[in-house]
Amino acid sequence: MSKVIIIGAGGVANVVAKKCAQNDSVFTDVLIATRTVSKADKIVAEIKQHMPDSRATFSTATVDADNVPELVKLINDFRPVMVINVALPYQDLTIMDACLETGVHYLDTANYEPKDVAKFEYSWQWAYQDRFKEKGLMALLGCGFDPGATQAFTAFLAKHHFTEIHELDIVDCNNGDHGKAFATNFNPEINIREITANGRYWENGQWVETQPLEISQDIYYPKVATRKSFVLYHEELESIVKHFPTIKRARFWMTFGENYIKHLNVLEGIGMTSIEPIDFRGQKIAPIEFLKAVLPAPESLAENYAGQTCIGVQAKGPGKDGQPNVHFVYNVKDHAECYREVQAQGVSYTTGVPAMIGAMLMLNGTWMQPGVWNVEQLDPDPFIDAMNTWGLPVDELAGIELVK
Ligand code: NDP
Fold first, then answer.
1. Is the Cβ atom of 236 under 6 angstroms away from ligand 1?
2. Where does the Saccharopine dehydrogenase-like C-terminal domain start and stop, copy by copy (predicted)?
3. 91 lines ligand 1 (CB under 6 A)
4. How many C-beta neighbours within 10 Å does residue 216 have?
5. How far is 110 from 115, CA to CA, in rounded Å?
6. What is the pLDDT of residues 131-146, one digit of tens each?
7. Could you give the CA distance from residue 252 to residue 234 in angstroms, rounded to a whole number?
8. Per residue in 169-205, pLDDT tens?
9. Is the pLDDT score of 401 beyond 90?
10. At how many degrees (to 10) do helices 149-160 and 380-389 cross?
11. Whose CA is nearest to atom 29 of ligand 1?
């Protein structure tokens, strides 16, 4: 019933497009628009090859999503109901501007980050609240897995298991092996910027800053492994502590192997992760952009990826009966299974499926309402039901404290 534009044609866009192709009673007409159109063409060719029964129609176009007039023309020519932005966080504001100008709804999976400052926060996008409301349009921010499903898990814990959440730990384990010496699972520039930045967590009403990867502990990830995990700052912490003010401490943990950290330390030590442009043969180039060009593309990791991801949220606080409670909600996903289904690795899969689900819940009216929204502000139940239907089964573990 709905026309949508997907912007971007990377690892995540590939999954969103293929999940739209599966969900063809909702997504009937999809345009994939991106910078390098051959990548969008490849996705469409794979849909035709692997999903010949899909009734959804796919087409492709070139767009520079940094350019608002180009975006406006693209949207006006295709006339979608919404835009699913799975390009890079740098493009969030230009795409939101174009959506406002053309009167279409908006969804993304990562909050805005300026290209020249390694800093991400919701303030820039929250500032669009009044404009989206006035136009009767919805913008759904950060609807991937983390951010995204982790906020739905938080809202689910608050709704079904706690009278108040006091401590929240989001844990993200990739226990997969892609066989490469060093590679990032999603856009290298965004990924490395996130990890090399100082850590930060919320405690007693304020942010506590840490050195990069300063705090760690071994965490047991159910059905997967016990893995050393590090405190990072992650964007959903900002909106979660705003929308759940009873939270006294909120942290985000991610696993990294020794080999990964060793490579990252060397790359950082020699300046290869810097975002400061240098002169190279008469050209200005940011070392991290060059690094991205030599690292394997995230989508190229998919074919030989083995192992699982496990991402979940542990909450502590008084339960529904007023007694101290601890509860964990999580998903485990197998990389090879993702490849068989949509020719993607697990990190792209776990991001792309929630984006498709968020778009579906907007298009079918379940979540649709004017304004700028974070996932935890919306009813988690239909989202979690859809995760179970669309390939991300949700599990729960009661009464066991996995994160100390
Ligand atoms: P990729 O780098 O694989 O893909 C990004 C795509 O965006 C590429 O096709 C790229 O084009 C395109 N693009 C970049 N700049 C522009 C531009 N100016 N105009 C048009 N297209 C552009 O990234 P991923 O697919 O791995 O990630 C996509 C998004 O998902 C990112 O924002 C990332 O932060 C987010 N993400 C969110 C997660 C979550 O759980 N919430 C987890 C993982 C990722 P080209 O091919 O020419 O480079």
1. no
2. 144-391
3. yes
4. 13
5. 14
6. 999 999 999 999 999 9
7. 6
8. 999 999 999 999 899 988 888 888 888 889 999 999 9
9. yes
10. 120
11. 86
| CA 63 to ligand 1 centroid distance, Å | 13
CA 244/CA 200 separation, integer angstroms: 18
Q: For the residues 358-369, what does the mean pLDDT come to?
A: 98
Chain centroid to Cα 388, Å, comes to 18
392 close to 182: Cβ distance less than 8 angstroms: no
Sign of CA dihedral 43, 49, 53, 57: positive
Query: What stretch(es) of the chain map to CATH 3.40.50.720?
Result: 2-141
Nearest-10 crossing angle of helices 68-78, 92-102: 50
Mean pLDDT for 222-236 is 96
Find the helix or strand (DSSP H, E) in which 327 lies: strand 324-334
Amino acid in position 333 = K
Q: Which tokens belong to 270? A: 């020699």
Task: Determine how many CB atoms are found less than 10 A away from the CB of residue 36.
Answer: 11
CATH topology of domain 2-141: Rossmann fold (3.40.50)
User: Where residue 298 falls among pLDDT bands split at 50, 70, 90?
Assistant: confident
Name the segment(s) of the chain with CATH classification 3.30.360.10: 149-341
Note the CATH architecture for domain 149-341: 2-Layer Sandwich (3.30)
At residue 192, the pLDDT reads 87
117 pLDDT exceeds 80? no
Q: Give the separation between CA 25 and CA 364, rounded to whole angstroms.
A: 11
- Determine the residue type at 376: E
